[in-house]
């Protein structure tokens, strides 16, 4: 399902199609492959022609998921690894996607997951540093605003941190923004691009609706409602699942989509741009050195970090509310590693 053209149209409408063959070998590992996100994500990655080999690891159930997914009739090899086989799972991987950890229950914030997920993510990052220090790491586990600095700090301690290779996956915010805006203005989501910047939790999610013709059509109370829905869309799912977890299917879609964008960049395609939460100089002078803004992806990972562009006064107010919260989240992650 992830033909290049289809995937291309999802989040980077301006990017150009790359014509040469995908000669590079892309081994992708999913850590947490047995979970609510991990299973459909593994399936979608099996459908991505840019993935040549899939390595599925979890403390529970990954060999079963691998056996199942391996029957899908695409070319990639799939191997499942049991709890004590993390090192083997990481051998030779180019990209590591991490959805391992606990999800929210009703009434919880993403930050409430910190105590459990911080150590899970740190230990997995330490294993990547040991076995595949040059791998690109895509962090899905929440709270992303803190888990990404934890991964970066862990790699730094191991002496292998490269800011071009660590990404927080904020794609679901973009996916939701496109969908909700297109519902509001009656367009196709495919043609309704929205840039979302900041972080990945409530008020740190800043959609820049004023930057497109469609977004400009939404004003006043409607704008406020739409922004709130984009910022807190995850809560709709948590509430509807009623204790059984948070977004898994739409997240798997978003995670596979971002992975596809990275693989296209790694393959040499030019002009692949997607918002992602990375080590970022834009607000570093305010002590906020991780931030999601549109990032150009290339053969080394992060190729170029784009500024957020012109924003409206209302969006500036959103950004003003985002930054102090984001700073706290980042500092919490850094303190955990220190
Ligand atoms: P889940 O509980 O269904 O699955 C998590 C999986 O991680 C389980 O299979 C579990 O066995 C595994 N796991 C736990 N510790 C592990 C370890 N040390 N090594 C390997 N695997 C381990 O949870 P779900 O719904 O898949 O969510 C996973 C994470 O993704 C949560 O932290 C959730 O908050 C986050 N999430 C992030 C989103 C984003 O936009 N970035 C959106 C939705 C969820």
From TrEMBL:
Gene Ontology BP annotations: malate metabolic process; tricarboxylic acid cycle
Molecular function in Gene Ontology: L-malate dehydrogenase (NAD+) activity
Protein name listed in UniProt: Malate dehydrogenase
Residues reported to bind substrate: 104, 110, 142, 176
A Gene Ontology cellular-component term: mitochondrion
Residue ranges of every copy of the Lactate/malate dehydrogenase N-terminal domain listed in the record: 27-168
EC number: 1.1.1.37
CDD domains membership: MDH_glyoxysomal_mitochondrial
Species whose genome carries this gene: Laccaria amethystina LaAM-08-1
Swiss-Prot/TrEMBL keywords: NAD, Oxidoreductase, Tricarboxylic acid cycle
InterPro entries in the cross-refs: L-lactate/malate_DH (IPR001557), Lactate/malate_DH_C (IPR022383), Lactate/malate_DH_N (IPR001236), Lactate_DH/Glyco_Ohase_4_C (IPR015955), Malate_DH_AS (IPR001252), Malate_DH_type1 (IPR010097), NAD(P)-bd_dom_sf (IPR036291)
């Amino acid at each position: 399902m992830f033909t290049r053209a289809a995937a291309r149209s999802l989040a980077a409408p301006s990017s150009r199609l790359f014509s040469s063959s995908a000669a590079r070998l892309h081994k992708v590992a999913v850590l947490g492959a047995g979970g609510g996100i991990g299973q459909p994500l593994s399936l979608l990655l099996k459908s991505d022609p840019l993935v040549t080999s899939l390595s599925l690891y979890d403390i529970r159930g990954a060999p079963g998921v691998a056996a199942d997914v391996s029957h899908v009739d695409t070319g990639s090899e799939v191997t499942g690894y049991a709890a004590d086989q993390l090192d083997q799972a990481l051998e030779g991987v180019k990209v590591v996607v991490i959805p391992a950890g606990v999800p929210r229950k009703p009434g919880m914030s993403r930050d409430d997951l910190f105590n459990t997920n911080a150590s899970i993510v740190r230990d997995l990052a330490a294993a990547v540093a040991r076995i595949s220090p040059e791998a690109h790491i895509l962090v899905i586990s929440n709270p992303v605003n803190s888990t990404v600095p934890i991964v970066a700090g862990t790699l730094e301690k191991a002496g292998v941190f490269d800011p071009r290779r660590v990404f927080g996956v904020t794609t679901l915010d973009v996916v939701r923004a496109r969908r909700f805006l297109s519902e509001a203005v009656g367009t196709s989501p495919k043609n309704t691009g929205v840039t979302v910047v900041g972080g990945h939790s409530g008020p740190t999610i800043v959609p820049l609706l004023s930057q497109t013709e469609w977004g400009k059509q939404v004003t006043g109370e409607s704008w406020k409602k739409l922004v709130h829905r984009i910022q807190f869309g995850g809560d709709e799912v948590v509430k509807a699942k009623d204790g059984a977890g948070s977004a898994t299917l739409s997240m798997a879609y978003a995670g596979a989509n971002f992975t596809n964008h990275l693989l296209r960049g790694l393959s040499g395609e030019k002009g692949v741009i997607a918002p992602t939460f990375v080590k970022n100089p834009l607000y570093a002078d305010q002590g906020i050195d991780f931030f999601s803004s549109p990032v150009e992806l290339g053969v080394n990972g992060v190729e170029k970090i784009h500024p957020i562009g012109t924003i409206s006064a209302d969006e500036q107010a959103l950004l003003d509310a985002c930054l102090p919260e984001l700073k706290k989240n980042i500092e919490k992650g850094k303190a955990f590693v220190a």
